[in-house]
Design brief:
Elements lengths: L2 H15 L4 E5 L2 E6 L2 E7 L4 E5 L2 H10 L3 E3 L6 E7 L4 H15 L1
Antiparallel strand pairs: 1-2, 2-3, 3-4, 4-6, 5-6
Helix pairs in contact: 1-3
Length: about 100
């Protein structure tokens, strides 16, 4: 497991243990869900974290340089943000924000 994945699952594990999320799968990949909704996953292919936020928030974060639009196979998913830089405090904050957005 890469350092990026270890960080993601450490942060996700804390939230799962606290009852704020559950582990699930999306597109055959382990992810974090809340109330059945996708929240985040470690992105093996892109080596980062993908979080689901509002499209407006994703636009803000892309403009700020925090992350980039998630566009697998060239199709942009407006509510999904790819955050390639493994920054523990930033990832924790974005994961919490994604959990609140899903709720």
């Amino acid at each position: 497991m890469s350092e990026t994945h270890e960080l993601f699952w450490e942060l996700a594990g804390e939230r799962i243990a606290a009852g704020r999320a559950v582990e699930g799968t999306m597109m055959g990949t382990p992810c974090v869900r809340r109330d059945g909704e996708f929240v985040a996953m470690a992105a093996r292919k892109w080596d980062g974290m993908i979080v689901k936020l509002t499209p407006e928030r994703v636009d803000e974060l892309v403009e700020a340089g925090t992350g980039e639009s998630f566009a697998p196979a060239g199709r942009t998913f407006r509510a999904w943000l790819l955050v390639p830089d493994p920054d523990e405090s930033m990832w924790a904050a974005l994961l919490d924000e994604a959990l609140e957005t899903a709720g």
